Amino acid sequence: MDFPVNSTSKAKFFHPYQNYPKLESPNCFLATLSCFISNNHKVNDLDLAHLEHEFHLFNNDNFDISGIHSNMSIQPGWDMSSTESVLSHRVIKNIRSRYGFKVSRLKITNFQDLDKFLLSKDYHLMSVIDPFFIEESPYFNKDHAFSVCIINGKDSNNCTYSFIERKHQQSNISFEGFKNNFNYFLESNGYLDIYVVDRENTDFHIDHISLSDDLSRIISNLKSSSSRLGLNAIQNFTAQYKHLLKNDTPFLVPWTERCFGERHANALFFRALLNEQHYLANYFIEDVEKIIKCYEELADLWRAFEMFHYFSVSQNSVKTLYRNIPILEEICTKESLVAKKMDDFQQQLENLTTNK
Predict the structure, then answer these.
(1) Which of 58, 134, 327, 339 is most open to solvent, judged by the fewest CB atoms within 10 Å of its CB?
(2) How many domains would you assign to the chain?
(3) CA 108/CA 106 separation, integer angstroms
(4) What is the pLDDT of residues 111-168, one digit of tens each?
(5) Are 273 and 214 in contact (CB under 8 A)?
(6) Does 91 reside within a domain?
(7) What does pTM read for this prediction?
(8) Is residue 276 domain-shared with residue 303, that is, in the same domain?
(9) Model confidence pLDDT, tens digit, residues 209-259
(10) How far apart are CA 330 and CA 114, in angstroms?
(11) Source organism's superkingdom (predicted)?
(12) Residue 50 domain-assigned?
């Protein structure tokens, strides 16, 4: 595999970043992508790309605890289990159509090819990484995990690559660790994923955003009769949380931080609609402001639940975990309120269209 290499370019030890991937982003991929685009293309945010609010409850018939993790998890609808599912999602498509950034993947199957490609990009690109190989990580030599990082330099004198990862911020990895990381993904998947961001022209206008389509999708999930989806998922999650406490064992719940990130991002989306003068958002400005306020409050509640839950587990205190129940019950109430406000807003949009 041949890559174009700028022979006059010297690999920099460090491509400086003033800001790191945001912890309040819905997931590590979007946080890292937004950070990379912001630093290299001077785009402040991608807020208009994200409007998601689908709940999925997993293993809701399994109340077991494996190690320190519960088998139960509640997740938003954006499947992060593979690069294919990540890059095929609406948000990534919106980033391309609304901001003009195309994100594609390159499968690297040879370590020499990886080093050549890094050189061609001046050691500055997005890739996957496993914290198992990061010496500064609490997961070092303990647990394998999937994450996304920005490689932003190479230091041949100290035999390290510098990189940025959401939870570790600016870090470095030894040449040996970097190669072991590559070999792990090669053995597991048959390749290492590199993400390439290309600039494209776009004729996007703010009024191209169809609020009615997005609201219909979200409301359909929230009102689902399935016990694993929407508002039912939240109610069942709360009931199962109480049930798990009876085991008298502290436990972690995977992915709850993404619930906070999704709500926070939705508040930013509606705020961006107003800032960019979307005609329907401005027409119903009071309704949009109320939705923003609800999402901000809901994000704070999910954040409080997540942080207090982790603190309680770190203190090895099941008794303290019981204090999360009122927070979850308030989340249930607020989620229902947001669903009603979204439904009311959708009805107003439909009435406006009908009366035209």
Answers:
(1) 58
(2) 2
(3) 6
(4) 999 989 999 999 999 999 998 888 887 778 887 878 899 999 999 888 999 999 998 8
(5) no
(6) no
(7) 0.90
(8) yes
(9) 999 999 999 999 999 999 999 999 999 999 989 988 888 888 888 778 889
(10) 49
(11) Bacteria
(12) no
